[in-house]
Design goal:
nine-stranded mixed sheet, six-stranded antiparallel sheet, 15 strands, 29% helix, 27% strand, binds pyridoxal-5'-phosphate
């Protein structure tokens, strides 16, 4: 089946999908995006993703391109046309196309691109073996809580991780605290059994998977501490893991050269992976 993309009102073959050279997403990263998981043909937490999309749009004073109902139809149609049963759908909204000028154009129609692809979400090998992360300085701009396509530091960090044989880079702020990963939220389980992830302030993207897992934990009366944690605390943790819509939950077995716990995926993490899998299979909080 050949891939189909949605670009500014039309469904087009993926290989022929184009935007204009003066699209402000291309020129200035003047655009926001979402990545939503699809499991068994069902969106996982679509409403939470659309809610975050609106927060990103509002923060950048971008206009919504269409109603949420229409957006849901387009997302569903792209998923259907690409035959994606398990995978991810990508949505980008830009400020539109206008002669190159930093100031906003007086009138430009928002640009919209939607693509979808098949992908194994909870990859058994990653879950069974866990992954390594490295730590690097967080050099991003002051608003990583907005899901903008301004992702150069994230791309550089991920490449550095890859070249170090790691899966992800955890970003460290000036106070020595881990903020999050380049494309995931960072979590630890302390030796005392406390599950910790950074509180959602302007320093991190409030992941939808993070929100989903919070919900799962709350429904099981499991305590979560949302607070800063240092690299040293993370290295001394008994377990660590990361969360994202495209991989759900992956155990972290080493940070830099330090093994976490006994260097294998931890029991608490494995239980959370199972609980989250059940939650996601029902569509998350959108579950009927
Ligand atoms: N943090 C960053 C910087 C990300 O790019 C992502 C996902 O792309 C996340 C966290 C996880 O967010 P979500 O769970 O919504 O995928």
């Amino acid at each position: 089946m050949s891939r189909i993309a949605y670009v500014n009102g039309r469904y087009v073959p993926h290989r022929a999908a184009r935007v204009h050279i003066e699209d402000r997403g291309f020129q200035f990263a003047d655009a926001v995006y979402e990545v939503i998981a699809i499991e068994d043909g069902v969106f996982v937490d679509e409403a939470l993703h659309l809610g975050r999309l609106h927060r990103s749009l509002d923060a950048l004073r971008l206009r919504a391109p269409m109603s949420d109902a229409a957006l849901r139809v387009v997302l569903g149609e792209v998923v259907r046309r690409n035959g994606v049963d398990e995978g991810i759908v990508y949505l980008q909204v830009t400020r539109g196309t206008a002669p190159r000028d930093f100031a906003f154009p007086a009138a430009a129609r928002p640009g919209v691109v939607v693509t979808a692809r098949r992908k194994r979400l909870a990859e058994p090998k990653l879950i069974a073996e866990g992954v390594r992360v490295i730590t690097i300085p967080d050099i991003r701009w002051g608003r990583p809580d907005i899901k903008s396509v301004s992702l150069l530091p994230n791309a550089l960090g991920k490449q550095q991780a890859k070249e170090s044989g790691a899966f992800e880079a955890w970003l460290v702020d000036r106070d020595g605290n881990v903020t999050e990963g380049t494309s995931s939220n960072a979590w630890i389980v302390t030796a005392a059994g406390e599950v910790v992830t950074r509180h959602a302030d302007r320093a991190i993207l409030e992941g939808v998977t993070r929100t989903g897992l919070r919900h799962v934990m709350a429904s099981q009366q499991l305590r979560l501490s949302e607070r800063p944690f240092t690299v040293a605390e993370a290295k001394a943790a008994s377990e660590a893991f990361l969360t994202s819509a495209s991989n759900f939950i992956i155990p972290v077995i080493a940070i830099d050269k330090t093994a976490i716990g006994d260097g294998r995926p931890g029991l608490r993490t494995r239980r959370l992976i199972e609980a989250y899998a059940a939650y996601a299979a029902g569509g998350g909080q959108d579950a009927p």
